[in-house]
Specification:
globular; single chain; seven-stranded mixed sheet; 19 helices; alpha/beta
Length: 566
């Protein structure tokens, strides 16, 4: 990092976090494993889990304070934990005009800061969030339904990794051009032409982050920190059922900004009751120049169509598929798929939905297996994984919304097709009021039009389809066309054939989806690692951007040149 520090109050932060930023830039280039944020609960002290639970409990039933934040005196609440706890937290409400005015007033000082200063402040925000990872884990658990182990990791350190990744990419893109350059053009016998040129990063404007219910921090931090690190004030609009994790984030950001000498209204919170339309209202405001959104295809499409004044980054719905051609580790394949289909009750945008299996069966290290045998063995693997209720609850978490429960019930009633594995209710030993369901596995046929209509539509939640296909090439082509038409965040395959692998890679490149091959160990198709894996590609209808690449940050600012004769 070579840029000079101009703000006197952030020099200490630059010194404190320079090594972390340099390491993040190096990790993004090498794509190997790296993280400054431990993912093991004990890394945060023996009392960390208890302290985090106590901090979370202290928030319940209380107004949530944000010092100096725009407010009209009303409080907005209504969050209820999927585990049966009423949170009872009231968040300060403000009208869009007041929020926009506050953000706009805060903008000039932040825009004038250097990319290095902004990066250092962002890293301090992440550092303080990281120290409270257990508190954030509780907040994520009781708004999303994730089991605590997952909520702590995905909602804590892994989300922080994604935020840091965005800061690193933002810094790299903003410093790609020198701040000053001397230009000399020879003119033969005449005096050379000499110019001095200055290149200044100019932020786009105000940013709007529209949060999701299932992964408020993991999906929210990339956009939040990409916008903030590139000089744009951010208005955080959480999902009404998952306000607390992002409200805690906003509070922490405001505290750091104020201490560093900046206006804390650079980060504000826009809350609403469920069913409100504030996101639509804000999205088309002319002051909003950047929008980050994770959620349904319908609203993502609406944003892309109507928010013409803004750069819109969306992650929407898709239909993820697995091609099963052959395997040299049948047991490992079944175990990996069983866990992938069960994790967080399938309530992930990366969970496999369609398992494309040749009707004639597959070759394995345990001999040839028919389509029916593969499906039956996978059902047995899921059943075995989740046979103990306590273990099942720790993997499945709780159902996050009524739509997921309705789809599970529809599968149980045979509405989608023949059941290979029926879902069952699980009683959580710690939270008897939680709604927990095991996955349903449904048998379908690719050649039946009614079945195609089912499996080519996203079925978010714990429902997967074992689709019989004519052959492996037919499965590969079905993968290709489904991704092209419907989008996908992930694709996976199992094969021992180099020729089939070549077909799969070609299809993935053509359709624009990342591909996982032959996963049998501790890496699953619905998990991605910051600084190494890209989450989404932006190359198919499921998402128009990726966490995280240069394109995700580079258009959040422009570079303006001023030149003079030397």
């Amino acid at each position: 990092m070579s840029a000079a520090v101009t703000h006197p109050l952030v020099g200490e932060l630059v010194e404190r976090h320079q090594a972390t930023l340099d390491a993040a830039l190096d990790a993004a280039a090498k794509r190997d494993y790296w993280s400054p944020y431990p993912e093991f609960p004990k890394a945060y002290g023996e009392s960390g889990p208890a302290d985090g639970k106590a901090a979370f409990d202290a928030l319940l039933g209380q107004p949530f304070t944000l010092d100096g934040h725009p407010a009209d005196g009303d409080l907005v609440g209504g969050e209820a934990s999927p585990y049966g706890i009423e949170l009872g937290i009231g968040y300060p409400h403000a009208e869009p005009d007041a929020l926009i005015a506050a953000l706009s007033a805060a903008r000039p000082g932040w825009a004038a800061a250097t990319p290095l200063e902004r990066a250092a402040v962002c890293l301090e925000i992440l550092h303080r969030i990281n120290a409270r990872s257990h508190e954030f884990g509780q907040a994520v658990m009781h708004t999303t339904g994730q089991a605590y182990g997952m909520a702590f990791q995905a909602g804590g350190p892994h989300a922080q990794d994604r935020g840091l990744e965005a800061v690193a990419y933002a810094y790299a893109e903003q410093t790609r051009l020198p701040r000053r350059a001397d230009w000399t053009k020879p003119q033969g016998k005449r005096e050379p032409l000499v110019m001095t040129k200055e290149f200044t990063v100019v932020p786009r404007g105000l940013a709007l982050l529209v949060g999701c219910n299932t992964f408020p921090t993991w999906n929210g931090y990339p956009g939040l920190f990409a916008s903030l690190a590139t000089g744009n004030p951010v208005l955080v609009k959480p999902h009404p059922r998952a306000v607390l994790p992002l409200a805690l984030t906003v509070r922490t950001a405001r505290e750091v900004l104020a201490e560093a000498g900046y206006d804390p209204n650079l980060v504000c919170l826009a809350v609403e009751h469920e069913g409100g339309t504030v996101a639509q209202t804000l999205a088309v405001r002319p002051e909003i120049r950047l929008i980050d959104y994770t959620g349904s295809t319908a609203f993502g499409d609406w944003l892309e169509e109507h928010a013409k004044q803004a750069e819109v980054y969306t992650e929407k719905a898709g239909v993820n598929a697995v091609v099963i051609d052959s395997t040299d580790d049948y047991k490992g394949m079944l175990g990996n798929l069983a866990f992938a289909l069960s994790l967080y009750s399938g309530q992930m945008c990366t969970t496999p939905q369609n398992l494309l299996i040749p009707r004639g069966g597959i070759a394995t290290d345990q001999g040839d297996k028919s389509y029916d045998q593969v499906v039956a063995d996978l059902a047995a693997a899921i059943d075995g994984l989740l046979s103990d209720d306590a273990r099942a609850a720790a993997i499945l978490g709780a159902v996050v919304n009524p739509g997921v429960l309705q789809r599970s019930a529809a599968a149980a009633g045979g509405e989608y097709g023949e059941l290979a594995l029926a879902p069952r209710a699980v009683t959580s030993p710690d939270f008897p009021g939680a709604t927990v369901r095991t996955p349903a596995l449904v048998k379908l046929d690719a050649d039946k039009p009614d079945d195609r209509a089912v499996f080519r539509t996203e079925c978010f939640g714990p429902v997967s389809f074992a689709v019989a296909v004519e052959s492996t090439p037919a499965a590969v082509e079905l993968l290709r066309t489904t991704v092209r038409d419907k989008g996908a965040m992930t694709a996976s395959a199992y094969t021992t054939s180099p020729e089939v692998e070549g077909l799969l890679v070609a299809a993935a490149l053509d359709a624009g989806v990342s591909l996982s091959l032959n996963l049998t160990g501790g890496v699953y198709p619905n998990q991605t690692a910051a600084f190494s894996d890209l989450h989404g590609t932006g190359a198919n209808p499921a998402a128009n951007s990726a966490y995280c690449d240069g394109a995700f940050v580079a258009n959040r600012f422009r570079t303006v040149e001023v030149r003079r004769h030397g």
